[in-house]
Specification:
The protein has helices at 140-146, 164-174, 183-189, 236-246, and strands at 4-7, 11-15, 24-29, 33-40, 43-48, 61-65, 69-71, 78-80, 84-88, 97-102, 106-107, 111-113, 116-120, 123-126, 130-132, 157-158, 161-162, 192-193, 205-208, 211-215, 220-225, 230-235, 252-255. The protein has 256 residues and is mainly β. The N and C termini lie far apart (40 Å).
Length: 256
């Protein structure tokens, strides 16, 4: 019987097959929903529920460890706004930290205590690390820039590490915009195409076969990539010359 599950750990992999050695399709982060289909051993097969759905857009499917899901409950009305938010064991910043929540994690608040909210038994998050889930940022490029230096992780979408399309998706979710998971889907589903020779501007998405970057201005780009093994800001010209040798030339530029 299917049910709506919710990720109950900071992040968990969504795998292509029900085994720990499987390739990573994407991730769920704390508080994100997963529409289950059936259980296969220690794994549950299902569909990822995006934090900001794209109407009519593609969704990711795969297998999640059953122990990392719980039955959905009240609506999560708050979210994490810092790249990492410590979950304290007491209402005190000097108390032991139980774990860290990633940027964008959704929270159900059980109670409020001056500077803290309680999200579970002996689990407290500082008020300065949260905001209402319905509040959105205005500049997705600045969100992407906050991730500079974080490690590149194939299939990652969290502030523990992400890939090129994960960076785009996470950054657009922060402004309340739906976004497909993979770069090819993003190329087909986002924005308006512009001429490859046209002047670029902040927020343009540049696509190669299997890769995407976000323009910071007309010349500089931020992207999570396997060459640097991190999210990096670099001149588009230098990146394009390098990427063309292995993946081919730029195939599309989209303006949101």
């Amino acid at each position: 019987m299917s049910f709506l599950g919710v990720c109950c750990v900071p992040r968990t992999p969504v795998l292509l097959s029900p085994q720990t050695s499987s390739s990573l399709e994407t991730e769920l982060i704390y508080g994100q929903a997963f529409l289950t289909q059936r259980q296969e051993g220690r794994f549950i097969k299902g569909t990822v529920v995006p934090l900001c759905p794209l109407v009519g857009g593609p969704v990711s499917q795969g297998y999640v460890r059953a122990k990392d899901l719980k039955m959905s409950g009240p609506e999560a009305l708050y979210k994490i706004t810092s790249l990492k938010a410590p979950v304290f064991s007491k209402k005190n910043i000097k108390s032991p930290i139980k774990f860290l929540l990633p940027f964008g994690a959704r929270l159900v608040v059980e109670s409020s205590h001056r500077d803290f909210i309680r999200i579970g038994r002996a689990q407290y998050v500082h008020q300065k690390h949260i905001a209402p889930a319905a509040e959105h940022e205005t500049d997705f490029v600045s969100v992407a820039e906050r991730h500079i230096g974080l490690p590149y992780i194939w299939g990652g979408i969290s502030s523990d590490g992400l890939d090129c399309s994960g960076l785009v998706q996470t950054s657009l979710w922060a402004i309340g915009q739906g976004c497909p998971r993979n770069s090819g889907e993003q190329k087909d589903g986002l924005g308006t195409p512009i001429d490859l020779q046209a002047p670029l501007q902040r927020g343009d998405l540049v696509f190669w076969p299997g890769h995407v970057g976000i323009m910071q201005d007309e010349k500089q780009m931020v992207h999570a990539n396997g060459f640097h093994m991190r999210t990096q800001s670099e001149p588009l010209k230098a990146a394009a010359q390098r990427i063309e040798k292995s993946e081919g030339p730029i195939i599309a530029i989209k303006r949101l």
